[in-house]
Amino acid sequence: MTVTKMSWRPTYRSSKFRNVYGKVGNREHCFDGFPITKNVHDNHFCAVNSKFLAVVTESAGGGSFIVVPVSQSGRLDSHCPKVCGHQGNVLDIKWNPFFENIIASCSEDTSVRVWEIPEGGLRRNMTEAVLELYGHSRRVGVIEWHPTSSGILFSAGYDYKILIWNLEIGEPVKMIDCHTDVILSMSFNTDGSLLATSCKDKKLRVIEPRSGAVLQQASCKNHRVNRVVFLGNMKRLITTGVSRWNTRQIALWDQEDLSMPIVEEDIDGLSGLLFPFYDADTHMLYLAGKGDGNIRYFEITTEKPYFQYLTEFRSPAPQKGLGVMPKHGLDVGACEVFRFYKLVTLKGLIEPISMIVPRRSDTYQEDIYPMTAGTEAALTASEWLSGINRDPVLISLKEGYQQPNQLVFKAPVKEKKSLVVNGIDLLENVPPRTENELLRVFFRQQDELRRLKEELTTKDVRIRQLELELNNLKNVSPNNV
Q1: What is residue 219's predicted lDDT score, i.e. its pLDDT?
Q2: Is residue 263 within 8 Å of 279, Cβ to Cβ?
Q3: Would you state the pLDDT for residue 333?
Q4: Residue 71: what are its φ and ψ, rounded to 5°?
Q5: In b/e form, how buried is each residue of 229-254, taking b as 16+ CB within 10 angstroms?
Q6: CA 365/CA 411 separation, integer angstroms
Q7: CA gap 22, 351 in Å, rounded
Q8: What is the mean pLDDT of each run of 10 residues along the chain (481 residues)?
Q9: What are the C-alpha distances in Å from 136 to residues 108, 145, 291?
Q10: Distance CA 373, CA 270 (A)
Q11: Which of 275, 315, 352, 385 could make an SS bond with 293 (beta carbons 3.0 to 4.6 A apart)?
Q12: What is the dihedral of CA 113, 118, 120, 125, to 10 degrees?
C-alpha cells in the first residue's frame, strides 16, 4: 500500500459542515478561579458530562480534583470542596457514560478509584471512594470506560500493563501484557469489541481485549504515534504523532491492515502533543495541540482525499487540556454539534467552546443530529465478559434528552478480613505507596519506638525493685524462723 500525500489546496465540495465555526462562551458561562494542576503529564485533566464538570487541581500532600455542577458557572469559591482521597497526583479522570454521578480517577499512588458525586455537587471534601482498586505496581496514567458495558473499566499503568476491572465485584478480571513500554492512549471501536493502543515503544496495536490477543501491530518508523482514535464503524483508525523530521502528523490506518498507513499528512512544526477528537455522528475530526490556541477540524470520508480540511478555531490563550460534552448535553436549538471545555492554566479559567452549524431555521435539524449513543448500557459486565458484543443503545435528541432509566450504581460489598498480630491489623495497614506517605509512617514509627523504649526502661526499673523486695523477704524469713 502506497502512502498518499494530501494537498492543503481547498477544493470545493458540497458539505453541510463546511461553515462550522467555534464560539467561545460569554464570561458568565465560563468557570473562573480554578487552581488547575501544573502537572506535565500528557492528559486533559478535565472531564465533563451533562451534570458535572471535573478538573484536576494543584494541591499539596496528595492528589485532588474539583467537581462542580456544569450549570454553576462563574467564579469558584476559594474554599470549594474537593475530591481528595489519593495519596499521589491525579493523572486522569473519566465520567461513567451510563451513571452520570460516577467518576473514575487514577493516580501516581498506583490506585484507581471510583467516586459517587451526590446530586447537586459536593458539600464537603470527599475522601472515601466507592471503590479502591489496587493491581498496578507503578503509577496509573490512563483510564477508559467500556463504551457499551456498564461495569467495565480499563486502566493502563507505567508497569506496561492494562488491567480490566469488573466493578460488579471490584476485582481485575484480565491483564493485557503485550506492551514493552508505557501505554500512551487507548481507544475502543463502537461496540467495544476491539481496543487500539499507542505505546512509547513506537508501536500501534489493535487488541481483542477479552483474550488479550494482538490482532494487528504496526511498527511506526516514519510516524511516531502519540494518540490513537477509532473512527466509529468505518473500520479505520486515526493517529497523531511526529514524523522523522519532528513535524506533527496525522495518519489514517485500516484496522485490518496496519502494515502501512493509508494516508499521512504533516500539520505543522510545533512541538506540543496533538489531541484528536472524533465525532462519529458528523464524521468530523478535531485536532487540538497542547499549548496551542487553535483547534483545526476536518471532515473524514471513505474516499480520497480522506481528510477534508474545513477551517480552524483561533484563540490567543494556550490550552492545557480539553473536556468534551457528551451529545445529549448539547444545545440542539443552537445547532451545536460539539462542545469543548478549554483549560487555560495561566488564568485559572475554563472556557466552553461551541462548534455550531449556521442555520437560519429554528426547527430541529435532523440531518446534523442522527440517532446517537445515550446513557443506557447495552450490556452488563458479566455479559460482555462472556463474549457478547452489542452496539450502543441509540437515542434521538429531537424532543430533548430524557434519561430512559433510573438505575443506581451499586458497589460490591466486600467482607472485611483481618489479620491481627499484637493488636495491629496487618491487612488494614497497607504498605506506603508514595514518598510523603513513607515519611509519615517513618516518623510515626520513630515515635512509637521511642514510647516503647521508655516503657521498657520503666518496666526494667520496676523489675529491679521487685527483685530487691523479694531478696529482702528471703533474708528476713530465716531470722524469724
Answers
A1: 84
A2: no
A3: 86
A4: -85, -15
A5: bbbeebebbbbbbbbeeeebbbbbbb
A6: 40
A7: 12
A8: 48 73 90 90 92 89 88 88 90 94 93 93 91 92 94 94 93 92 94 94 93 89 88 91 89 91 88 91 92 91 88 90 93 91 90 91 83 91 93 84 55 52 46 65 80 87 85 70 49
A9: 10, 17, 30
A10: 35
A11: 315
A12: -60
CA distance 433 to 430: 9
What is the pLDDT at residue 462? Answer: 87
Residue by residue, DSSP assigns 311-348 as EEE--SSPPSEEEE--GGGS-GGGTEEEEEEEEEGGGT
Residue appearing with cell numbers 494543584: 58
Rounded CA separation 331/354 (Å): 9
Cβ atoms of 2 and 330 closer than 8 Å: no
List, in sequence order, the alpha helices (H) in 18-161.
none
CB atoms within 10 A of CB 41: 16
- Cα separation, 303 vs 46, whole angstroms: 34
Q: Which helix (H) or strand (E) holds 112?
A: strand 111-116
Amino acid at 281: D
Tell me the three cell numbers of residue 381: 459486565
Beta 74-75 vs 31-32: how paired, if at all?
parallel
pLDDT for residue 2? 47
For residue 209, count other CB atoms closer than 10 A to its CB: 20
What pTM did the predictor assign? 0.80
pLDDT given for residue 469 in this prediction: 83
**Which among 205, 191, 292, 184 has a CA at the least distance from the CA of 233?**
191
Cite the DSSP H helix spans in 58-184.
none
| Residue 39 CB neighbour total at 10 angstroms | 16
User: In whole angstroms, what is the distance from residue 161 CA to residue 197 CA?
Assistant: 12
- What is the C-alpha separation between 130 and 245, in angstroms, rounded? 47
Q: What is residue 417's predicted lDDT score, i.e. its pLDDT?
A: 46
pLDDT for residue 437: 65
Cell numbers 443552537: residue: 334
Q: How far apart are CA 173 and CA 386, in angstroms?
A: 12
First to last CA, the chain: 114
Residue type, 37: T
